[in-house]
Design goal:
The chain has 300 residues and is α/β, with parallel strands linked by helices. The protein has ten helices and twelve strands. Helix 1 crosses helix 5, helix 4 crosses helix 6 and helix 6 runs parallel beside helix 10. The chain is globular. The chain binds 3,4-dihydroxybenzoic acid (DHB) and fe (iii) ion.
Length: 300
């Protein structure tokens, strides 16, 4: 059986990709960012996932604004890095897992999530920067990648609640796939940032840190947060963070936060990275024996 064993949250700032591609990782400004990912790179190299499902957003690159699917699953065998104006990033072609992706599409659509199936898609910084941050600069990406594009660019994006529920459905889909595959799911984008308008440059570290705390311990609270609150507190583009809730919905209620990194800024954005590993539900308290009868334990 395939199994989702962990989730990764990470920002996707395009300038991080440019810094990496142009050999600037040792500059003081960028070293602060990249050094925070050293531990995450070690973690994923040790975990060696067979497949990563990467929940990301397209920035009017593959879909333009003519067609904007709310949720679009990449079912192709490969996805070419897009040219976003400076030529395609010099990163490997992203190899898909079309059999698992087709299975997920079937399972979640029958579970009443109306996914768009994408058989051809170029992928922009929203997907390639998280891969670079977690895997560095290999000749080939070390695992298969299933991209799941979420609309957070054109109003209205899906709610955090819907994103979380989609994550739950994806987990069911993965767990009904017969092959033994180790799967890690990424939620990407964010954290707080606003790139245009009067509040351009807005960063809200207090909001971001509370988001990370709740993502681990109280994600249901985050599912109630409205778009307007993301935008007011975390900037217009801060709404990208709903994508992290797809990742969280695909994990156990009980997770262990094995790593967290947060720094401000990279370009216009607060950079966050979190790793959550699935843990079994905490054991119910030992039943107290009352007059020879076992009293039901209170639920943890
Ligand atoms: C920046 C951040 C983004 O998420 C993005 O898509 C584009 C630019 C920035 O910080 O400059
Ligand atoms: Fe973005």
């Amino acid at each position: 059986m395939a199994k989702i064993i962990a989730g990764v949250g990470t920002s996707h700032v395009p300038a991080i990709g440019a810094a990496l591609d142009n050999g600037k990782t040792e500059e003081t400004y960028w070293k602060r960012v990249f050094s925070g990912y050293e531990e995450s790179k070690r973690w994923i190299a040790e975990i060696k996932p067979d497949v990563c499902i990467v929940v990301f957003n397209d920035h009017a690159t593959a879909f333009s604004v003519d067609v904007v699917p709310t949720f679009a699953l990449g079912c192709a065998d490969e996805f070419i890095p897009a040219d976003e104006g400076w030529g395609p990033r010099p990163v490997p072609v992203v190899k898909g897992h079309s059999a698992l992706a087709a299975h997920i599409a079937q399972s979640v659509i029958l579970d009443e999530f109306d996914l768009t199936v994408v058989n051809k898609m170029e992928v922009d910084h929203g997907l390639t920067v998280p891969l670079s941050l977690m895997f560095g600069q290999p000749e080939e990406w070390p695992c298969k990648i299933i991209p799941l594009a979420v609309n957070v660019v054109l109003f209205p994006p899906p709610t955090g609640h819907r994103c979380f529920a989609l994550g739950e459905s994806i987990r069911k889909a993965v767990e009904s796939y017969p092959e033994d595959l180790k799967v890690v799911i990424f939620g990407t984008g964010g954290m707080s940032h606003q790139i245009s308008g009067q509040r351009a440059g807005l960063i809200n570290s207090k909001f971001d840190k509370a988001f990370l705390d709740n993502l681990t311990a109280n994600p249901k609270k985050l599912t109630q947060m409205k778009h307007v609150e993301y935008m007011r507190e975390a900037g217009a583009e801060g709404v990208e963070m709903v994508m992290w809730l797809v990742m969280r919905g695909a994990l156990n209620t009980n997770v262990e936060e094995v790593y967290r990194f947060y720094t401000v800024p990279a370009s216009n954005t607060a950079v966050g990275n979190i790793i959550l590993e699935n843990r079994p539900a905490p054991r119910a308290k030992k039943a107290a024996v009352v007059r020879g009868k076992a009293k039901p334990a209170t639920r943890a």
